[in-house]
Amino acid sequence: MNLLPWVSLFFTILWASTVVAIPSQTTDKRASSPFVSTSGPGFVVNGSSLKYIGTNAYWLPTLNTNADIWNTLSNLSALGIKVVRLWAFNDVSTIPVNGTWFQLIQNGTVTVNNGPNGLQKLDTVIQMAEQHGLYVILSLTNNWYPLPLLNSTVPPVNSTAFDVTPGTNNTLPRNYLSNNYGGMDLYVRQFGLQTHDQFYTNPSVLTSFMNYTTQVVSRYVNSPSVFSYELANDPRCNSTLAASPTCTTETITTWHATVASHIRSIDPNHLISSGVGGYLCTNCPKLYPLAPAPAPPATSPAPGKKKRSQAKPVTKEQILRERSERRRRNREAAKRAGTLVEDGVRVRGRWVSTATKRQQTPTLGSVYDGSYGVDSQDISNIPDIGFSSFQLFPDQQSYGPVDPNVAPWQSIEQNGAQWITTQAQSASAVGKPSILTGFGLVTQSNAPSFVPFNSTVAPFAADNPNASTTYGVTSQQQADTYTSWLNTGIAAGLNGIIQYQWGQSNLTAEPGTTISPPTTTGESPTPSSPGQAPTPQQTTGQSPNDGYSTTGSTTVQQILGNAAQSIAAN
Ligand SMILES: *[C@@H]1O[C@H](CO)[C@@H](O)[C@H](O)[C@H]1NC(C)=O
Ligand SMILES: *[C@@H]1O[C@H](CO)[C@@H](O)[C@H](O)[C@H]1NC(C)=O
Ligand SMILES: *[C@@H]1O[C@H](CO)[C@@H](O)[C@H](O)[C@H]1NC(C)=O
Ligand SMILES: *[C@@H]1O[C@H](CO)[C@@H](O)[C@H](O)[C@H]1NC(C)=O
Ligand SMILES: *[C@@H]1O[C@H](CO)[C@@H](O)[C@H](O)[C@H]1NC(C)=O
Ligand SMILES: *[C@@H]1O[C@H](CO)[C@@H](O)[C@H](O)[C@H]1NC(C)=O
Ligand SMILES: *[C@@H]1O[C@H](CO)[C@@H](O)[C@H](O)[C@H]1NC(C)=O
Ligand SMILES: *[C@@H]1O[C@H](CO)[C@@H](O)[C@H](O)[C@H]1NC(C)=O
Ligand SMILES: *[C@@H]1O[C@H](CO)[C@@H](O)[C@H](O)[C@H]1NC(C)=O
Ligand SMILES: *[C@@H]1O[C@H](CO)[C@@H](O)[C@H](O)[C@H]1NC(C)=O
Ligand SMILES: *[C@@H]1O[C@H](CO)[C@@H](O)[C@H](O)[C@H]1NC(C)=O
Ligand SMILES: CC(=O)N[C@H]1CO[C@H](CO)[C@@H](O)[C@@H]1O
């Protein structure tokens, strides 16, 4: 049983490389399908394996013209990018005057918008993706909806009002930030509930979410360009609304199993994935335990047949060992360079050892101990979940301790690389493919636009009184780190790596939409005089920038383009 996918992959490769059709008897039926499926740790489409570089563009369905959607897809496709991850939800509690929305969630009642500014926009994106030979990952809801952050008893005055304090860039239109598309906390609030995790457990909310899911999924059952339905972006026990004390990893794993099984019942064709940040919990109880390692075969395998090496589960000891190995290497390099700082402080030019540092008990940190209520490996092992997934955002999350013997950005790069290889190992223990669904680093030039996913405040915006010194890495450090992570991911056998996020210029701007006309003095369109015909909207806008956009960085685009060639050849 266990060997079957490997046998079929073997024939698939043989078939692809000889162009001679082999009777499909031994081949997995799904392998020749135009829908993406999995075969052991790989993806298969039309009998060929698929590995890819992707990008995120949550705002695609909110663009104002079809030409804008088309141009964006053309631009990223021209780089060799194959997959676009985007929001297939856009929940509001009041119908906006202009712009796109998919679902009205109001006082416990839910209405889906099937109109031209509703799910038809998503239809257009998916149809155009298909015409470009691109795949889409459709995320169905969001953990993050920090609105209204300032006064939770007062709903937003209107759908364009966002936040009102300095530093919030309160002119940002709805849907500009990735966390302003509704999501879990909007359901919780509008159903009169209190805690974030009631989203996962309240029967009325669950019914509504499944209803929305049904309506989205049934539209695309036959579209080969859907790569997967992603249940939620970054699901956790808490968000702006706090978690209840009863929320555990089992709460969130159970929710995944329930929704995945529901989707499977209406769509037999597409993969289903999680969207989790990738948090692991080496010691949590499992609802979907890893199968015990099979006993080694009594006879050696036939010549030429590779035996699958037994994947090892991730352990606390292993993570700590890898960390201390890395520190040792960094320390030795620093010694050679004469820049050693670890375990010491400089006192009048001389290093003095600080014993206390060495006595600290090493801990794994929150990404490995289940404190977010997420056990990604247990979720990946749910039968209806097609592949393992994770994210990498060091500006919002620590992936390990800082090593004083390297520059801070190098610590971030190294911890990120370890996160990638650990995730590849975790997926391999489950026997499924692994996708990095979002990674990004904020640069100094993007810092003023950076808004963390759990917040509406741009902490480094010029109008924030708190904005202090420089924040973020240099463009060169970003380029080096992205290159390192992409190479690490490709070498570790990740099946897909999706950068966050795409930047597109020359988009049609319209008032009250995500792409609004520039408001800065000098750039605003000239108002027409009375009696004259209204001035047509001629201004163009940029796609949203939440601190990670590639707008203006051809370097990042080149890095992605190179990685696309490299991963396809791997
Ligand atoms: C898969 O095969 C179908 C039918 O021949 C074709 O239309 C489609 O473009 C192919 N897809 C890919 C990704 O090659
Ligand atoms: C990229 O998008 C622009 C519009 O922003 C468009 O004019 C151009 O043709 C596109 N390039 C490609 C290669 O599709
Ligand atoms: C919300 O719904 C409840 C019960 O369904 C109803 O009593 C209440 O009047 C509604 N509130 C508003 C503001 O519509
Ligand atoms: C499901 O959605 C449809 C369309 O918006 C709506 O008419 C129906 O009332 C919903 N059902 C439930 C149980 O929410
Ligand atoms: C929130 O708004 C309500 C109603 O205007 C007001 O009574 C309350 O004081 C406000 N709370 C805060 C923290 O501003
Ligand atoms: C929305 O609210 C903001 C802030 O209260 C106000 O300035 C703006 O005029 C309102 N817009 C609409 C369309 O009502
Ligand atoms: C500024 O910093 C203070 C103290 O940390 C915090 O309470 C406040 O919310 C911050 N304001 C903004 C706009 O970020
Ligand atoms: C959410 O959970 C994390 C991890 O336990 C914790 O650090 C954070 O304070 C919590 N946030 C809220 C808003 O409850
Ligand atoms: C958002 O998350 C970061 C990182 O976990 C944390 O430092 C910050 O306090 C959080 N902010 C809010 C508003 O929850
Ligand atoms: C901008 O977009 C328009 C409309 O899609 C297109 O005609 C024009 O060539 C584009 N310009 C540039 C510089 O890409
Ligand atoms: C909606 O769009 C129309 C037409 O572009 C514009 O005149 C109006 O100001 C917009 N309304 C809002 C609230 O942005
Ligand atoms: C995301 C965004 O629009 N950021 C802007 C916030 O406001 C400052 C100054 O007003 C701008 O410099 C940022 O670009």
From TrEMBL:
<keyword id="KW-0964">Secreted</keyword>
<feature type="region of interest" description="Disordered">
    <location>
        <begin position="295"/>
        <end position="337"/>
    </location>
</feature>
<dbReference type="GO" id="GO:0016985">
    <property type="term" value="F:mannan endo-1,4-beta-mannosidase activity"/>
</dbReference>
<keyword id="KW-0378">Hydrolase</keyword>
<dbReference type="Pfam" id="PF00150">
    <property type="entry name" value="Cellulase"/>
</dbReference>
<feature type="signal peptide">
    <location>
        <begin position="1"/>
        <end position="21"/>
    </location>
</feature>
<feature type="compositionally biased region" description="Basic and acidic residues">
    <location>
        <begin position="314"/>
        <end position="335"/>
    </location>
</feature>
<protein>
    <recommendedName>
        <fullName>mannan endo-1,4-beta-mannosidase</fullName>
        <ecNumber>3.2.1.78</ecNumber>
    </recommendedName>
</protein>
<feature type="region of interest" description="Disordered">
    <location>
        <begin position="508"/>
        <end position="556"/>
    </location>
</feature>
<feature type="compositionally biased region" description="Polar residues">
    <location>
        <begin position="545"/>
        <end position="556"/>
    </location>
</feature>
<dbReference type="InterPro" id="IPR017853">
    <property type="entry name" value="GH"/>
</dbReference>
<comment type="similarity">
    <text>Belongs to the glycosyl hydrolase 5 (cellulase A) family.</text>
</comment>
<keyword id="KW-0326">Glycosidase</keyword>
<dbReference type="InterPro" id="IPR001547">
    <property type="entry name" value="Glyco_hydro_5"/>
</dbReference>
<feature type="compositionally biased region" description="Low complexity">
    <location>
        <begin position="511"/>
        <end position="544"/>
    </location>
</feature>
<keyword id="KW-0732">Signal</keyword>
<feature type="domain" description="Glycoside hydrolase family 5">
    <location>
        <begin position="52"/>
        <end position="273"/>
    </location>
</feature>
<dbReference type="InterPro" id="IPR045053">
    <property type="entry name" value="MAN-like"/>
</dbReference>
<dbReference type="GO" id="GO:0046355">
    <property type="term" value="P:mannan catabolic process"/>
</dbReference>
<dbReference type="GO" id="GO:0005576">
    <property type="term" value="C:extracellular region"/>
</dbReference>
